[in-house]
Amino acid sequence: MALIRGRERNTGAQIFTASMADIVFLLIVFFVLTYKVEVDRTKMDLPDTWVRMKVPEKAAVISISPPSASPPLTIRVSTGEEMSLPVSTDEEIVTFASTEVAQNPDKEFIVKADESVPYERVDAVLDALKQSKVKFIYLLSEQKVVD
Amino acid sequence: MKVKKKPVPSEIFTGSMADISFLLIIYFMITSAFSATRGLDFALPEDTQTPEIKQEDAIDVHVLRGGAIQVDGIDKNLEGLLPYVAEKLKQNPDKPVILRTDPDATYGDMIRVFDELRQAPEKIDTEIKTISIPTRREIENLWSMLGIQ
Fold this sequence. Notes:
- In chain A, a hairpin with a 6-residue loop joins β4 (75-78) and β5 (85-87).
- Helices cover 29% and strands 20% of the residues of chain A.
- By secondary structure, chain A is α/β, with parallel strands linked by helices.
- The longest helix of chain A is centred in the N-terminal third of the chain and has 15 residues, at 20-34.
- By secondary structure, chain B is α/β, with parallel strands linked by helices.
- Chain B has a domain at 53-146: Nucleotidyltransferase, domain 5.
- Chain B is built from 5 helices and 6 strands.
- Chain B has helices at residues 17-31, 78-91, 107-118, 120-123, 136-146; strands spanning 38-43, 59-63, 69-71, 74-76, 97-101, 131-132.
- Chain B is rod-shaped, with a radius of gyration of 30 Å.
- The N and C termini of chain B lie far apart (114 Å).
- Chains A and B meet through α1, β2, β6, α3 and β7 of A and α1, β1, α3 and α5 of B.
- β7 (136-140) of chain A pairs antiparallel with β1 (38-43) of chain B.
C-alpha cells in the first residue's frame, strides 16, 4: 500500500517590520524637537559648581579656549544664533557686545571658559562686557559631584 | 472594437521611506550635542543704581594664585569662608561681598569661591545680598580715586 504523504507547507521566516516606520518616525520627531545647534564647539573642561542656573537659549556666547589648546586662549564670540567666530582684541569684544546690547538691552551673555584659563583673560572679557553695559552674565559650569 | 482598459493601481511607493528615515535619524544623532546649559549667573548693576561700595564697608574676599583665599586680609580655607561671612552678616545683613581674583589665579579658582558664596542660603541660612566681582580696571580706578598707588 502506498503511503499517502501530506503536502509539506512552506514556512517562510519573516521579520515583522510593520511597526518599524512608527518607531523610526517617533525617533525623528524626538530628535527634531530636542535638536539644538551648539553655536560654540570649543572643547574644554568647564569648572564644576553646585549652584547652576539654566542659561537662556538665545544668549550670546563668549568662549575662551584652554591654554593647552592650539592656538591657546583663543576668544570666540557668537550671537547665540550663529556659529562662533574668533576675535583677536578686547576692543572687538566690546564692539560685538555693544552691538548686541544696542539691539536688545536685556541680552544675556554666557562666558564659557576652561577652568585652567588664567583669570586675567576672564577679567578682560568681563571688563569688556561691563563697558558694553551688559546686564546679565552666566558663567557656564558643569555639575559638581561628590568625590 | 473596444480596447479593454487595464486598471492602473494607484500606489505611493514607500520602499525608500525607511532609507530616508534612517538617514535622518543618523544625521540628527551625529549632529545633536549634549552641551552644558547651566551655570552661575550674576547681574551687573545698572549705571543709575550703582551703589558706592567702599572696601572697608564690605567683606573683601581675595582669591590668590594657587587658589588660596584671604578674607579681609586674613588667610582662610574654603570651609572657613562662609562661617566668617555669616558672622559679619549678623552685624550687618546688607554687607556686600567683594570678590577679587589675582590675575595669575585660574578661572577655576575664582569659580570655586564664587560657588561657595552662592551656597550661603543653604550652608549658613543667610543670603548674601550683593556679591560684587570688580574687574582689575575698576579696582585700579578706585585706587587712583583714593590716591593709592
